[in-house]
Amino acid sequence: MADTYAVPERQEDFASEVDLASRWLGGSVLAASDESFGEKENLLVPTPAAFVPGNYGHRGEIVDGWETKRRREPGHDWVLVRLGAAGTITAVDVDTSFFTGNFPATCRIEACGVEGYPSPRELQDAEVEWIEIVPRSALKGDGHNRFDVSDGRRFTHVRLSAFPDGGIARLRVFGRVVIDPRTIDGITIDLASQDHGGQVVTSSDGFYTSASMLNRPDKARNMGDGWETRRRRDGGPDHALFRLAMRGTIRKIEIDTAHFKYNASAEVALFGANTETMPAADAPEWRPLLARTRLQPDTRHVFEAADAFPCSFVRLDAFPDGGISRVRLWGEVVPSERKAAGYRWFNALPSKQALAVLAEAGAADEAARRIANARPMSPDAGIIADPTLAKLAKMLEGSNGEFS
């Protein structure tokens, strides 16, 4: 490595999951059967639920969650959520915080994968393939109800059913982003973004706010919406380690200290590693991407990368400590990764969505069924030969560096 300073031991580790439904990623509550006491949009508020007893409005006590009226007829309540980033779901948290005598007795969670931007009415059509990912299960009140999910398909929407009625504070849909290759223009993307599947794996410190916010796709709203560490007395640095969404060559580095006016990092240095697994923070595999460089408070900085080489991981060192709102790592995905991402996406599609994709690509019904049933396909073997599928093959394999 170019620098000889000591890198701190890892202190703050993160799960390999992101909240696919988060408003930070653009998740939305599309519709609900009822929201008499608590608005459905509360379910996806990024912050934990809060409640002030005795605070009443025209509809009763004001709650921080989704709460329906008491049912006096058969049936159950439900809510439809569009994920901000489609992906494979690993767990769901049905959070009933502060709902003690008014939470649902049980819940069920289903998911679907669909093309385009369907309306709530279209999503509830009988033709939509809703797949149960959490069977009807008992809920406890005033707490987190986490349900692990083993289905490996890629989903775009979820439906939460509450039996028979009641209140739920928050809904978190944890998983891993599976990027749609049609959304990549083949030129330059933010390789670190959560929107594409990038992840902050660990950081040296998250005393005030977590480094996991650094790669959110939006802009920071205030100083609490960024990474801030405690004050170091040993000269630093603090560090954060990123797993890129896909292996790529970084061209530009964006470091934004927005809202950090008196506590921004004074300097940063960045290093990249082209490895299958994340190297230790002080491993020799790290190569310089940006030499130690001065920062200004409350400023968006854009720097040219010092060298162009494929990276799968990036380490950011912040001197002497951390006060940074966002990090963007702009670059091109390497061709082999583009191809792998295309096949990963196609293999993970639910069957009806795969058939819709094949039909759009020009496949006849029989050929579409044959190809969909032949999944998973290997990038090494290539797509099944069919002269009508040139468009799909180009999309999956990134021909000429493009997906479309």
TrEMBL record:
Family matches, as InterPro entries: Allantoicase (IPR005164), Allantoicase_dom (IPR015908), Galactose-bd-like_sf (IPR008979)
Pfam families: Allantoicase (PF03561)
PANTHER family: ALLANTOICASE, INACTIVE ALLANTOICASE-RELATED
Any one of the GO BP annotations: purine nucleobase metabolic process
Keyword Hydrolase: yes
UniProt organism field: Sinorhizobium mexicanum
Record family assignment: Belongs to the allantoicase family.
GO molecular function terms listed in the Swiss-Prot or TrEMBL record: allantoicase activity
Enzyme class: hydrolase
Entry EC number(s): 3.5.3.4
Reactions mediated catalytically: allantoate + H2O = (S)-ureidoglycolate + urea
Keywords: Hydrolase, Purine metabolism
Annotated metabolic or biological route of this protein: Nitrogen metabolism; (S)-allantoin degradation; (S)-ureidoglycolate from allantoate (aminidohydrolase route): step 1/1
Domain spans labelled Allantoicase: 26-177, 197-333
Protein name: Probable allantoicase
